[in-house]
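Posting for a labmate who doesn't have an account.
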Amino acid sequence: MSFVIKTKKPKTIVKKDSKVNDASVKFTKESQGKNSAITMDVKNFLVFSKLKNIDADYVVLTLALKNILKSQKVIVSNGSNHPSAWLTKSSDDYEYKEAIPLYQIPDIMQHLYLSVNNKAEQPIDIISLLMDNPLIDYNSNTVDVVPEKIKEGKVAFRVSKNEKIEQLSLHYYDTKYGNIDIPIVGEMKAKTVDVTKLPTKAWKKMNENFSLSVTGYDVKDKIGAHKAKQEGQFEIVEIDIQSKVYALLKFNPAERFYLKIGENYALKLHPITDALPMGLYGDASLSPGANNKFRLAFYVPKGLDALSRNLMVELKGEDIVLPIKKGEDTLQRDVLAKGTVEGTEVEVNGVYTYKDKLLVNLTFIDEKDAYSTRLHDAFYLNVKPEIPNKSEKNWYPLVKSSDKVLGYKNHEIILDSTKKSVFLWFDNPMNDTKPLYLVSPLFEDLKYKIDKKPSSLPETFHYALTKEYPYVVKKDSVSMKVLAMVSAFKIKKEKENASKKQDTPLVSSLEKVKKKSRFVTIPPF
């Protein structure tokens, strides 16, 4: 829910290290939006062709945030009030009172976006930290809106050079209290993007203090300006994290979250999560007083829609699995051969040709023993049913397939107590006279004979061809210069504040209890 109030034009002051586009001043006006927790006023905006001696175009907004939450039972911690309902149990160790709680944005960089000319939303630029009266502190992207005070400050968004601005709108993401869409200039066609809510919500413990639930799921062909390849799709999972105690939770989401597809596939969290509103990818410190709702992105080959979906979180001891979507557990496949090593079994499910390559479909099965398994240099094709000798000919190593979502990776990891299907890629050496053998120095009992030319890869298995989606944030010379300026600014501020006493919050970390892997490496011969 959102609405707009237009009022008087505010006065603007521009310093010598910045230059305003003259044509932009006439757009200046005040707009307001709100949800059930805050009002958000755009007091003014200016378009700069030069900002803080940086020659690039920026839109700078002056925002005013007001807490409109109602009085409720709160926990008092470090002088701030936090909603007690956001903790999953009560404790005599806390001080409670009736008051208006703090409204906290955990990472405003992942919640606030600007749309220019109804195109893809732009995130806040870090040059915002260099503004006079910035909305964001130098040492944290968290924004606290305390009761009975207006939180006012500036944020900057970098926009395309010399682009004529005919439309501007501000978009704020908050699935707890409601999203906010604020038209500033022109007709606002795009609004905040919601994820389809799931009808039921189950909670699972991440550790003794924090629990997690899945609240939404969607399939998208585009995230911001990033469009999926024809053979793949982005699957978005929305989660909620709650605390049982007043503590920070520190962990690395990129190393913890997997999308489990059926029983045989577990795809890691994709770095394009960083481009999602409310995305959670890099190192995180989560507070129970914050609105800890987040979104995770996974890149998935098309052709696996019939399989179930679950969110898996790798933890010490037993991983947790939360249901997302019902479906089949596995695609029908044959078991042509098996190999075993302590703690892990491998099945050969099929052999196919594709152009000039030979593909072997394998499924690994890891037993429940509190260890994951990592494989290295584990498979070869040989004209004999034995491990090839380096000096001999007529043996064939794996072809690199790390660019495929389901391709076998060197140092392949099979998580504890899971199954994982992959495709081995070889140059196709098959002819009609000599058989070949799939052998492994790790799975010594695996000697699978391929004695006739395999069939072509069925179209229903073309998901095996899906390439990884490359997501790289390219930093141009402007971005690098701003980054250097911000880094120098942060160092200066840290030195200035080094002598000040800082409160040390209770910290609960998943990283301290990260499970170890059993590394199985076959040395080169």
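Reply:
Got it, the structure tokens are right above this. Helices lie at 477-497.
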